[in-house]
Amino acid sequence: MFDEILDFNSDRELDQVEIQKLTKMTTKVEKWIKRYKSGDVKPNEAKKRRMGPPRLSRQAWLQRKVYDKDRELTNRLIALTGLHSDIITASENMQVVYYTPGGHYHAHHDSSDLDLNLPCEHTRHLYPKESHNNITATRLCRFITVLYYLDDTEEGGETAFPVADNDTYTMVDYQKDGRAVNPYDLSNYCKDANLIIKPRKGLAVMWYNHHINNTTGMLGEHNLFSLHGGCDVLKGEKWIANNWIALDENHDMQIKFHRKQLYGGNKARTGKSSSKEQVESGNENYVDTVKETKSNCNSRQEVVVSHPDATRVPL
Length: 315
Ligand SMILES: O=C(O)CCC(=O)C(=O)O
Ligand SMILES: [Fe+2]
Known about the structure:
The protein is 30% helix and 23% strand. By secondary structure, it is α+β, with helices and mostly antiparallel strands. The strands form six sheets. It has a five-stranded antiparallel β-sheet with strand order 1-4-14-7-10, with no helix packed on it. A five-stranded antiparallel β-sheet has the order 2-3-16-5-11. Helix 9 (251-264) packs across helix 11. The longest helix is centred in the last third of the chain and has 14 residues, at 251-264. Fe (ii) ion binds at residues 108, 110, 228.
């Protein structure tokens, strides 16, 4: 309430002007107190409001054929991740993010919990038509994030991982050094994060959003320690780009995805919003193209997933 109604300039103090305004505001304040007392305002709602919007930034998608014509970056990603080139090449295009002072992205996960009742967003269009029509929800299956800093930022704008390596982390009553901390709120608790990275032009950060399933060698449980976000930019601008590497928990679906994207697809994938476009564009030549390129596919022997629990998956 203090933030919402009284502290107009959000400096956490009531000055003369705010107090003068306050006298005209009594009805509104009384209404608020009444709502609060009646339990109408849930603690979460209050918390969210104090944190401000989850994200304050501008985003754009770049197509691989535009930003990486010569595949230099793609090849470096293959080397960096140790993954099969098809996994990298079939993944989402690059997202560029721009922040100005006050801009931030509160802590979040880039991928979704492993839920076998929901298809992965990147392979949803590969399900048979009948079941496909029944798909109303999907989840993000982003095994790896690679984040690039495209420029320095004068002040603030760190990428923070509030609970990295914290074995004792639970979502309830999170504490740091004996103080209650809201690990999602990077405007107020950025410096409490366990890992903080200062933007520096040319630096890239890579992390795993999931574990590997030891039996299948494919996408495993969500790694909740990958919680992260962008702290408030205090001075200057922040420019970053994201590459998300998609992986299904189902090996056959992932291979189908590669074939369609790389050898049978007629449209490049442009991020989450494009899958509908891809489905609608269809691809009647798929079977022929797969036949033609089968030798090409077959020359690729295996998908190698590089991860602390790495296993080799036959293709
Ligand atoms: O701005 C940052 O440092 C983090 C951005 C991020 O997490 C995202 O775009 O998903
Ligand atoms: Fe993120």
